[in-house]
Write a structure and sequence with these properties.
Strand content: 25-35%
Number of helices: 10
Shape: elongated
Largest sheet: 6 strands, antiparallel
Number of strands: 34
Structural class: alpha+beta
Radius of gyration: 39 Å
Helix content: 10-25%
């Protein structure tokens, strides 16, 4: 990786660059340090993101991923985030135009001699054939695979064998479905049992163990955890897809004739694990946000107030059906897990928290929602399982049996002295209905929390949705305002940037009394455009645009450059005819430069440099022909040095001192300094023997003011 200047002078310092690599989808990260919004899935529960931190110093870096999964891998490369409020506002042309270029080279090393076997027929090996790798294809089923391995021709000097199984790629020490050891000297035949990925390649690695084998699980005792129960019945249902005709916008639901209904009613029975299967396509579906919502379907009485409540710190049971139940929902890619009553999901010997645990205690726990940014491509499984209230009962009941308590001491605290044998037995068989909604949209529901605009980013044939946030807002959906300035601060900032232009009134006043009417008009336009541009460029909370912002921006930059141009021409000793011609020529050239690149230092330097040349040459030719200074002595000794000093200070502030944090103050000072410098730079040569800062005697009788004279001509009275 290199960082170098492109068509600009100067050098570039190395910069920190982050590379995120992920399988199946784009890496969902927040480079600017914002947290993910509410309901967004925890990134730690998804596919691993490989992160590289590089320095653009031209040195090579190598990163290896052992036994990668097959399919598409995606890399996201960006410069390490820095707080923009601390960064300098650099003018184009004054600093090097630095670009960071990343050169990549992908090398793949394939494992050889991977033999094909039958997952359901077993395998026989001689001990001297170990180590070996094998692969097999499973059928479209979630049923467990019983694989029998036989090791022959062993001797007393042989060591133990390590068996590892993984789907889609060769197993590693960190990634496997099953990994256990057995001693072929004690028994040369070993059966291993594992839950497979349906219709997928599985890789079996048989290795010799060097050293202590106690760090590996024993295949003889390698069983599913004894404290975890299995579902009696497991079914799989394919969901129906409904495309909406826009990028990343689709729904999934149970097969139905109602295409407008995006929800699915899933009927559940205790003892059954029901898996719903859907497909997320590569390229087409991975650039949006996939939302999963689930809820328990309760009766009308439940929502009318017949719900569990707390009394003396104890859960008070339903009075409608006297039944408590919960639904555990798991989400997996490539395989289906088994939901557990503890609120976890089990796949082989790996246990992790469930996606949702919905229970009928109150309205807050019957609903769950999660949003998955940039979902991985592949086959998704959503598995639901219902559990009855047998875990919390038998429970003590009230006299009439209409109410029961989970806490056996609750009745005593309520002062009830009934028979302690008044109990209700828990139910082991129950039925319930879950409401499920699966939908994908660009951004979050197609918008960005009303604080930004949703757009599509395309590069190299890849498309992803993103939010462009309004000033001050951030995060994935522009909902985070933690870095936003207060409304008072924003209002003060915009007032500084706008009201600082009022100092141009002094420039206009001085230009008028010194008879520079064209220049006064240009200063007026500069003040107007700058004021309304900064009012429009302010944050949306306090900003106001009279016309489109790009028009105001063009007017601000154009009139600012023209003010420099006409001021330099006014300072020169040239004829009015030549001055008018140069003003018109400058108006055309400055318009072209502003349209070309208004932010470029060249667009500013060119008219100013030409104007200075015209100014100095006119002074030199005039002095050579007359041998005296054209303007009064105080202009050269006092006014001109003050004006030049003010312009110099203003240019230093504008070019080198501005940062995002102090921009409001420094740029406002720039407005005031430039407006004030005109008062000293314009020479007062069209009048004689008057104070340069006040109108002269008879000023309002000048030809300019006759335009406003509305007096009638005297009529003769013959």
């Amino acid at each position: 990786m290199k960082r170098k200047a492109i068509t600009s002078p100067g050098s570039c310092s190395p910069q920190d660059v982050i590379v995120n690599i992920k399988h199946g989808s784009y890496p969902a990260v927040n480079p600017d340090g914002y947290d993910f919004p509410k309901h967004f899935v925890d990134p730690a529960t998804r596919q691993r993101i490989h992160t590289l931190e590089l320095l653009s110093d031209g040195k090579n870096r190598t990163y290896s991923i052992r036994n990668p999964r097959p399919g598409n891998w995606y890399a996201l490369v960006y410069k390490k985030w820095e707080d923009p409020r601390t960064q300098k506002v650099e003018q184009q042309g004054l600093v090097a135009d630095c670009h960071t270029i990343l050169y990549t080279d992908l090398q793949v090393k394939r494992e050889k001699d991977i033999r094909l076997v039958d997952c359901y027929a077993g395998l026989t090996l001689n001990y001297d054939e170990v180590p070996s790798d094998f692969k097999c294809m499973t059928v479209d089923s979630t049923e467990a695979v019983n694989f029998r391995l036989t090791i022959r021709n062993t001797s007393i000097t042989n060591g133990e064998i390590l068996i590892s199984v993984q789907s889609l790629s060769l197993p590693t020490e960190e990634s496997y479905l099953l990994s256990c050891a057995f001693d072929p000297r004690l028994s040369n035949e070993q059966t291993i049992n594992f839950s497979p990925y349906p219709s997928a390649w599985h890789y079996l690695s048989v290795q010799r163990i060097v050293g202590n084998a106690s760090r590996y699980a024993d295949c003889e005792s390698y069983r599913y955890r004894a404290d975890i129960d299995e579902a009696d019945n497991r079914t799989t249902v394919d969901l129906m897809r409904d495309d909406k005709g826009r990028f990343f916008t689709f729904d999934y639901g149970l097969p139905t004739t109602d295409l407008q209904d995006v929800t699915s009613l899933v009927n559940l029975t205790s003892g059954e694990a029901k898996s719903l299967r859907l497909n997320v396509n590569q390229f087409l579906d991975i650039g949006g946000n996939f939302a999963i919502e689930a809820s328990l379907l309760m009766s009308l009485k439940y929502y009318m107030g017949y719900r569990r409540e707390l009394r003396n710190g104890s859960l008070f049971a339903f009075t409608e059906r006297n039944q408590f139940f919960k639904v555990v929902i798991c989400l997996d890619i490539g395989h289906a897990s088994v939901p557990l009553e503890s609120g976890h999901c089990k796949f082989n010997d790996r246990v992790r928290p469930a996606l949702f645990v919905l229970n009928s205690t109150d309205s807050e726990t019957i609903y769950g929602k999660v949003i998955i940014p940039y979902p991985e491509s592949g086959v998704w499984y959503i598995t639901l399982r219902l559990f009855c209230d047998s875990a919390v009962c038998p429970c003590r009941t009230s006299e009439n049996g209409s109410e029961y308590f989970v806490d056996p001491n609750a009745l005593d605290r309520d002062g009830y002295m009934g028979d302690k044998n008044d109990t209700r037995q828990g139910e082991t068989v129950c039925n319930a209905t879950a409401v499920l909604s699966l939908s994908s949209t660009s951004c979050v529901n197609g918008r960005c929390s009303n604080h930004g605009s949703c757009g599509l980013n395309t590069f190299g044939g890849l498309v992803m949705s993103f939010c462009s946030c309004s000033a001050g807002y951030g995060s994935w959906d522009c909902s985070d305002d933690s870095r936003m300035d207060s409304r008072v601060y924003m209002l003060v900032s915009v007032l500084l940037l706008t009201l600082s232009n009022l100092l141009f009134f002094f420039s206009i006043y001085v230009a008028i009394i010194r008879l520079y009417y064209s220049e006064a008009m240009m200063y007026t336009f500069t003040m107007v455009f700058s004021t309304f541009y900064h009012a429009c460029d302010a944050p949306a909370q306090v900003g106001y645009c009279v016309i489109r912002g790009n028009i105001l921006q063009f007017g601000d930059f154009y009139c600012g450059l023209m003010s420099f141009w006409v001021t330099l021409l006014a300072m020169g000793v040239i004829s009015e005819r030549l001055r008018s011609s140069l003003q018109l020529t400058g108006a055309i050239v400055v318009a072209l430069l502003t349209t070309w690149n208004m932010h470029s230092f060249v667009a500013f330097l060119l008219p100013v440099a030409v104007g200075l040349c015209v100014l100095l040459l006119s002074w030199w030719f005039d002095f050579r022909s007359t041998r005296r200074l054209r303007y009064p002595r105080p202009y050269y000794t006092t006014h001109l040095p003050i004006g030049v000093a003010l312009v110099s200070v203003g240019l230093v502030c504008y070019a080198f001192l501005q940062t995002e944090q102090n921009y409001k103050i420094v740029h406002s000072v720039w407005h005031m300094i430039i407006a004030g410098s005109v008062v000293f730079l314009l020479p007062d040569v069209r009048r004689t023997a008057v104070n340069p800062f006040v109108p002269g005697p008879g000023y309002f009788k000048s030809p300019f003011w006759r335009v406003f004279d509305r007096s009638q001509a005297r009529v003769s009275t013959d």
